[in-house]
Amino acid sequence: MRLLPLLPAALVASSAYAQFPGERVAPPQDLKKGWDSMTMNQAKEILTFLATECEGRGSGQPGFQKAADYVAAHFKSWGLKPMGDNGTYFQNVPFNQSHFVDEGSYIQIVGSGKVIPAGKAFRLTGLGASTTISGFVAVLKVTGDTVDLSNVNLQGRIVVVYADKLSNSARFSIMRQSPAAILTVAPTVPPTSYSAQRANPGAAPSNSNRRPARGPMGTISTEAAKELIAGLTLLPDSTGSITGGSLEFSRGLVQLKANVDARQIGVPNVVGLLEGTDPTLKTEYIGIGGHLDHLGKQGSVVYPGADDDGSGSTAVLSIAHAMSLNPRKPKRSILFMTFCGEELGLIGSSWLVAHPPVPLNKMVAELQMDMVARDSYGAQNGDTRRMDVEKENMDTIRLVGSKRIATELDATIQEVNKSVGFRFKYDAEDVYTRSDHYNFARNNIPIAFLFDGFTPDYHQPSDTVDKIDFLKLANAAKLYYLTAYAVSDKIEPPKHDVGR
Questions:
Q1: Domains observed in the chain
Q2: DSSP assignment, residue 80?
């Protein structure tokens, strides 16, 4: 793999680029060398590798390890101290890795003797162990981007979904009903890949506002779905109250048998430290983090995760490079972190705060970046009452949680932003519990979470590099570069003046 170099001064000087129109104040002269190194070209080189060479960076999949090796190699080349296991940059988190097995898996219509074997007919993902599911079938035909299921009950049912394209909003509406399994109808059934689940479910926080937990999901072929439905008696939804589709329920029970091959593995957080220069303050720490994982490769489909969160991981690397390059180093120590398992329930950061590489009571702030390189548009967090327009968000970014715990952190960000020119939005506190900063906030560590908002590409194979706003990405890195220095250089850490 080709590493990013520590750029010569002449090249750094030539790589400066325009800021947002709101720029007013030049960055401090003694931080300019690092500042100038954070270019759009650098961001593009890093992100292109993460989003095109690592097969979606699914935790527990080979593509994630490839991305982790890339980050660790750069941390090493820039002189960061390894803070992982046994003198490495890898803090391995225990996961259960599983793979759906066709042989012995089937769908049976109870009482009829009709059996549909797995394989070309259907396959499941998201199971950590072999299981048998018995339940009634619900046949849902989705006709729009959204479907309202609030007045029906799909809990415990095996939901067979027909949709030309199942949007995130519609998928989440189904998942919120806690069905026993979701089978999406498609012409063909893709092969399954190994997936990972947390090894200790009790280790992660309980987040009422997180996206719905993902249960068993899979694909059933058009022919197999037709065969299954032909063997059932279906009744229309008696409430007639759903919008955006139609719903029918089966009278007869179906038994779904899923065989799973499972094993335990370690999936790494990648952690490196830039030691501070002040003899006293260097024993205090500022965390800078982003999650390295995405949805990986599911069957033959790759979810690149360019914005989510290739962009945040890219910014973490950009800042680490800039600080290692800059002649003046921070007074407090900086802990750089790229997390595994965020998409599976904040698993990597949950493990890190339970097994901290530095004392948590000495961490004065955590700066998180999760999706920092798109201009948001469409419904925000599935709420059609909050519709963003892309051209109105080219210089905006959400600043989440910065007014909780320590409002001084928000004031610091506002001050250094005079050199960057973002227009901040504070309208996304409903995602406060949905990224890795939350595990630090739960430990009463002041946090700030940069987040660009949602687009229809969220958690889709279409979250690709060609849609990235590299000016926004580089500026997100610059903002936290200045923020980390500002927090580092103050004699007193941010004062805790509000609750979590």
A1: 9-95+264-489 (3.40.630.10), 97-262 (3.50.30.30)
A2: P
Q: Are 58 and 64 in contact (CB under 8 A)?
A: yes
Closest-CA residue to 361 (of 259, 283, 476, 256): 283
Say which residue the tokens 């069905």 belong to. 179
Q: Give the integer Cα–Cα distance in Å for 233 and 459.
A: 35
Q: Which two tokens stand for residue 148?
A: 């309202």
Shortest CA distance to 474 belongs to which of 447, 450, 449, 457?
A: 450
The 10s digit of each residue's pLDDT in 31-85 is 999 999 999 999 999 999 999 999 999 999 999 999 999 999 999 999 999 999 9
Which value, in Å, is the radius of gyration of the alpha carbons in the chain?
24
In this structure, are residues 404 and 456 in contact, taking their beta carbons and an 8 Å threshold? Answer: no
Cβ atoms < 10 Å from Cβ of 102:
17
Burial track 175-192 (b if 16+ CB lie within 10 A, e otherwise): bebebbbbbbbbeebeeb
Residues 6 or more apart whose CB falls under 8 angstroms from that of 265 comprise 60, 94, 95, 96, 97, 196
Could you give the C-alpha distances from 75 to 4, 68, 81, 233, 314, in angstroms and in order? 10, 11, 8, 60, 12
Give the tens place of pLDDT for each residue, 249-294: 999 899 999 999 988 999 999 999 999 999 999 999 999 999 999 9
CA distance 89 to 74: 10
Q: Is the pTM of this model over 0.90?
A: no
Residue 287, classed as helix, strand or coil, is strand
The span from the CA of 219 to the CA of 121, in Å, is: 8
What b/e sequence results for 463-477 when a residue is b if at least 16 CB atoms lie within 10 Å of its CB, and e otherwise?
Answer: bbbeebbbbbbbbbb
Element (H, E) at 98: strand 90-109
Query: CB-based contacts of 466: which residues, under 8 Å, 6+ apart?
Result: none
Report DSSP state, residue 87.
G
Question: Could you tell me the two tokens for 210?
Answer: 């997180």
The secondary structure element, H or E, covering residue 162 is strand 158-162
Q: Six-digit token pair at 198?
A: 């947390």
Residue with tokens 């849609």, as numbered in its chain: 467
